[in-house]
């Protein structure tokens, strides 16, 4: 619950921060905060990794995909979309993981295929809504968000195998630290931060620590206690929290068809990831 609340609330926080800072400044601040803290925690817990060069390259490459590229696409999509709709990225990712996993030889059950089919029907409905005059959902914004979701789905797939080899915390820490370096090198010389309210920088700090440090650690702990299958279902709650908070805090008024499409997407995602049978606690 802590993780999905932080991830859902982070969408609303990022949408609010875009009123005071550009996407480059927000991402650079979040990367610096989360990267330094996570690498320090990983080194303290496990020491400096002694991986072969191939493993370092794999971690850096996957980190580039899941951090620099994902965050660039995601914040672009948030800037062009309501925060509630942007939050659906968390719901679309589990749906995209399954068909993309087929390319890597993963098996998909009939139940999973059914859930993916339902979720894609909801996504199709959301795409059709972008053609309606006056709708707050834009085709361009939704396109950026879907590209971001695809990046994160691929990151998730590679995450599983690499985390098993090098450990979850070292992978998350060094994939973020190495993966954000190209972004920081390109962004830092062009940042314009004069006149930014201190509260905005506090928001960047909260986003970096909350969504990228505390949430990751809490999610990993939850997976240990509940098991991976049961934990994945909880991920569908993050978009729900984002939708509710965007309505309460940002006063976004999404039309009923958008809520219905979101419900179909999240229902399909939950169905596709629902455990085949109850997993014992600690499994």
From TrEMBL:
Family, per entry: Belongs to the EamA transporter family.
Membrane topology, from the record: Multi-pass membrane protein
Gene Ontology cellular component annotations, sorted alphabetically: membrane
Protein name: EamA family transporter
Subcellular location(s) of the protein: Membrane
Transmembrane stretches, start-end: 25-43, 55-78, 84-105, 112-130, 136-155, 167-188, 200-220, 232-250, 256-274
Keywords linked to the UniProt accession: Membrane, Transmembrane, Transmembrane helix
SUPFAM superfamilies: Multidrug resistance efflux transporter EmrE
Organism: Deinococcus ficus
Residues covered by the EamA domain: 2-127, 141-272
Pfam families (UniProt xref): EamA
